[in-house]
């Protein structure tokens, strides 16, 4: 069930009318549903039943401490890609032995922090992406007198479809170690001090709407696991990454359910004696949030009808960055007989790219109307900026009939206080 529903002619988040949040917190504002986060996380838990597994939520999709705390209580681990995200996961109470560290450019300081947490027990696994990174990690671990658990992220060279800016498993992407070089890289681990092999890792892209690319990649990696084991490596974990798509638009997106995806992984890995690590991000957070905004002005009469919102590309950059399509709906339901108008929905930022959608047919809108930009829970608030000195968009979490601001909107003063004018100007 979707927890952003129309009731009594208005859109609600669980049992709170969105209009109430707009009045008390102001717009634009991200609104999340705790029940939806819970349902999505539990869908992955159920999908992995019967498998030795870890669900390491991809923190970068939505890294608010309240969201991480909610997921931690449901048993989530974390996939982090920076020292900052590591700190967030630890603060939210995610056990270090459920944390994996991904990313192509970890610094030595970040490695040190990940090895030092857990009273020196460190995190569960480093997903390492190059031989140079292996050497750096070996140096840090040796220096600290500890051993770093390592999986190599393998680039299986499959095309995951979807947008080129979120495809990661092709040989021409910067991610992972080319599968043809994997054996030599694992041999290197054995040569280097203070490292131990724990597994293999992949992450082939995001918003993947069919199982085929995952299956193709898994076949390649499972073949590699056999070879690595013959070479004498202990491959215990298979981190299958994230990437499962979500429905942004019912007319175009028909992604597999977590249950279908889980069944496929179970079938593929059966009998391989592997612990499976899942790193879902979007599939958990995407449809658990909306961006609530107000129509400031309507400009008609020229070539287009512009709906000018108070939200902009600095608050939600996905349309500008990836050409992403988000459903936009009026919060107060319009009558069935409303005139239908094709709008270009835009923000106030001084960029032509500040366009949420073009020629979108919607019931005739009025200035002051609230709109919900759907499916904005993942890669929304986390990618927001203060471009045009627009204060960073706040976040609200709803649970049942209660809600709370989980990230405040800074004042202009807060923004300016971070800057300094040297006295030699
Ligand atoms: C971004 C990312 C994920 C999450 O991807 P989704 O498409 O949001 O599920 C998982 N693992 C790694 C390494 C990532 O970079």
Folded structure, characterized:
With 425 residues, this protein is an alpha/beta fold. Helix content is 28%, strand content 25%. Strands 4, 14, 15, 16, 17, 18, 19, 20 and 21 form a nine-stranded mixed β-sheet that branches. The protein has an eight-stranded parallel beta barrel with strand order 5-6-7-8-9-11-12-13, surrounded by four helices. Bound molecules: pyridoxal-5'-phosphate (PLP). Pyridoxal-5'-phosphate is lined by residues 58, 60-61, 79, 102, 203, 206, 241-244, 279-283, 378.
Key phrases:
425 residues; alpha/beta; TIM Barrel; binds pyridoxal-5'-phosphate; 9-stranded mixed sheet; 8-stranded parallel barrel; globular; Lyase, Ornithine Decarboxylase, Chain A, domain 1
Short overview:
The protein has 425 residues and is an alpha/beta fold. The chain has two domains: 4-31 and 287-416, Lyase, Ornithine Decarboxylase, Chain A, domain 1, CATH 2.40.37.10; 34-285, TIM Barrel (Alpha-Beta Barrel). The protein has helices at 18-25, 34-47, 65-73, 83-91, 108-116, 131-144, 182-191, 212-230, 258-269, 282-285, 318-322, 412-417; strands spanning 4-7, 10-13, 16-17, 29-33, 53-58, 77-80, 99-101, 125-128, 148-155, 177-178, 195-201, 237-241, 275-278, 289-299, 305-309, 328-330, 340-346, 355-363, 370-373, 395-399, 402-407.
């Amino acid at each position: 069930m979707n927890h952003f529903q129309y009731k009594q002619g208005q859109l609600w988040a669980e049992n709170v009318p969105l209009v109430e949040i707009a009045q008390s917190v102001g717009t634009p504002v991200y609104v999340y549903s705790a029940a939806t986060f819970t349902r999505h996380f539990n869908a992955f838990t159920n999908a992995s039943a019967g498998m030795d597994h870890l669900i390491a939520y991809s923190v970068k999709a939505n890294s608010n401490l309240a969201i991480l705390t909610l997921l931690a209580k449901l048993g989530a681990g974390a996939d982090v890609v920076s020292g900052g995200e590591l700190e967030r996961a630890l603060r939210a109470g995610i056990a270090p032995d459920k944390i994996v560290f991904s990313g192509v450019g970890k610094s030595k300081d970040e490695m040190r922090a990940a090895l030092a947490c857990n009273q020196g027990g460190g995190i569960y696994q480093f997903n390492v992406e190059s031989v140079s990174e292996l050497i750096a990690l070996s140096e840090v671990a040796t220096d600290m007198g500890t051993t770093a658990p390592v999986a190599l992220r393998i680039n299986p060279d499959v095309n995951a479809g979807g947008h080129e800016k979120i495809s990661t498993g092709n040989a021409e992407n910067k991610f992972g170690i080319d599968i043809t070089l994997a054996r030599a890289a694992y041999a290197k681990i054995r040569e280097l001090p203070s490292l131990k092999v724990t597994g293999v890792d992949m992450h082939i892209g995001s918003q993947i709407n069919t199982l085929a690319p995952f299956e193709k990649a898994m076949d390649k990696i499972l073949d590699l696991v056999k070879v690595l084991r013959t070479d004498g490596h202990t491959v215990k974990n298979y981190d299958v990454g994230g990437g499962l798509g979500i429905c942004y638009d019912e007319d175009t997106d028909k992604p597999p359910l977590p249950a279908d995806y889980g069944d496929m992984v179970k079938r593929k890995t059966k009998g391989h004696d592997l612990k499976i690590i899942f790193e879902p991000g979007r599939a958990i957070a995407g449809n658990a949030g909306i961006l609530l905004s107000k129509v400031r002005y309507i400009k008609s009469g020229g070539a287009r009808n512009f709906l000018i919102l108070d939200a902009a590309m600095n608050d939600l950059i996905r349309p500008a960055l990836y050409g992403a399509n988000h459903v936009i709906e009026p919060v107060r339901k319009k009558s069935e007989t409303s005139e239908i108008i094709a709008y270009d929905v835009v923000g106030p930022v001084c960029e032509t790219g500040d366009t949420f959608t073009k020629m979108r047919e919607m019931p005739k809108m009025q200035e002051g109307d609230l709109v919900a930009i759907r499916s904005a829970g993942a890669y929304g608030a986390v990618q927001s900026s203060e471009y045009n000195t627009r204060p960073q968009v706040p976040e609200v979490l709803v649970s049942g009939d209660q809600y709370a601001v989980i990230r405040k909107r800074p004042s202009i003063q807060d923004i300016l206080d971070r800057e300094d004018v040297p006295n030699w100007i």
